Amino acid sequence: MSDSDFPTELNNAEKQINKAKELASQHLGIKAISAQLTTTQGCFSKTLEVFLQDGRSVIIQFRIEALDAEPFLRARDLLGDIVPIIEVIHDPELVKAGNETRRATCSKSLGRVFARCFVEGNTSEVVDSDIIPNLHTIRALALERDDVKPFSAFIAKLIEEAPTLKKNSLYSLGSSI
């Protein structure tokens, strides 16, 4: 996606970085120290990692299309904290400038990991080829490591319920999961 696809307020990297830091600070109440564009970008968005004063980082994503957060909410209900918290941020300045269709989103948990996870294939293939095998690997760790053993029942539940993810819209190559 080209910077020229965005409104004047976000039409270059410097403006995107400054706005991402501003939004993260306002939304989370923690000073943003720095921000950078992630190495991989989506087709309809600009994604930035914002580094906070408390040592955490969050992902801010500017989109030219509204985000459908419903699949994330369903996945989080099913899988719990393993799925990042996704929140839509409505910025009054962008709305005032006549950019009502522009949206910003914030991922407060696991954002850095999920912003860089790209896979090929459709949702069903991804569940079968990536998610379920990785869950089995984690379950094997639970048998070997004392620090993972307490999660054995939860991991088994995730494996059992993972096929239901096939009806959610996970993103394929070119978009983040």
CATH architecture heading of the largest domain: 2-Layer Sandwich
Mean pLDDT rating: 77
**Number of separate strands:** 5
The largest sheet has its strands arranged as 1-2-3-5-4
What overall form do the CA principal axes indicate? elongated
Could you explain how this protein is built, in words?
With 177 residues, this protein is of the alpha+beta class. The chain folds into two domains: 3-114, Phosphorylase Kinase, domain 1 (2-Layer Sandwich), CATH 3.30.200; 123-167, no CATH class. 38% of the residues lie in helices and 17% in strands. It has helices spanning 13-28, 70-79, 92-96, 111-114, 123-144, 152-161, and strands at 32-37, 45-52, 57-63, 86-89, 103-107. The protein has a five-stranded antiparallel sheet with strand order 1-2-3-5-4, with helices on one face. The longest helix has 22 residues, at 123-144. The chain is elongated and about 50 Å long. The relative contact order is 0.14. Mean pLDDT is 77; it is low at 109-116 and 171-177.
Q: Briefly, what is this?
A:
With 177 residues, the chain is an alpha+beta fold. The protein is built from six helices and five strands; from the N terminus they run H-E-E-E-H-E-H-E-H-H-H.
